[in-house]
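Q: My labmate handed me this sequence with no annotations at all. I'd like to see what the chain might look like in three dimensions before we decide whether it's worth expressing. Could you predict it?
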Amino acid sequence: MTITFYNLFNLTALNNNQIHYLNIGLMILSAILAFILPFELFLFSYAVLGPLHYLTEIGWLHKKNYFTKGKYDFLFLSILCALVFYFSFIKPAKTDSQIPNIIFFAVLLSLIFVFIKDNLYRVVLALLAIIGLTMAKTGSTYFIWVGVFLPTIIHVFIFTWAFMFYGVLKNKSLAGYLSVIALSIIALSFFIIKAPGLQYEVSAYVGKSYDLFYLLNKFLIEFFGLTSNTTDDGTLVYKTNAGFIVMRFIAFAYTYHYLNWFSKTSIIQWHKVPKKTLFTTISLWIFSVALYVVDYNIGLKALYFLSFLHVFLEFPLNITSFQGIINSVFSVKK
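A: Here is what I predict for the chain of 334 residues:
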């Protein structure tokens, strides 16, 4: 069905097929922008689209009881998120595994919250999880996958793909399948297509603003086996072709992650909240963007907790999405 000019700017009026086709267009737009200005696109999306996504999604998750079986389960995930913030900025973590352990415990708790209702079983399983994490021997791979990849690229790309695929399996829409395939192909294209040489340089401001994320790029470069003649991390991330390839993928993944959320307004209905709540959300969003404008690093630190909070509170939804995919693929009846 054709997307009319009116519907394009009235996302609450779009039907499922229109949304899927719109999303394919948003993927292509995000990919083009990511190819031309990868670092700049990421910084813009993270500062402008990110806070509005966090605020609206948390409000929507609250209406859905965070997809858990307990009324106050979200408080435990929020406390764990506060601990991550504390050990990141107030009292630095003593070991490399401390923050990843908190993140992984949040995942384990989310599994318990999604599948177990009995409080006694919940407490026992939570204690076993703590004991297991305390006794487990972890290394650099654990730190990379749980501490770096899970709350970033896995959250914005893998979990977004799973959420889309779960929705498509429920609705069995051809347009939906095309959107899932398009997301996969476009993501792969950044690593397959040999990009022509562009006179692209990362400015000092952009490099300074992005510095908090550079480990993500470094580890992704290593994971994808991209070669470079330099051993200097700064040069590798900001000045090499390997660095640009990975940054394009990251910028695309984050930008589309946010746009995908807003494009599904008519399905998710996150906008249907009291006027007071909507006014508060918009006010906080404007304030957040202003912080980034004044100083990007101040904005990053100020919004760090909110960013991680939406990741933690989304874990039960991520688990529910994978559960739905498995049930649909293997025709498991509830």
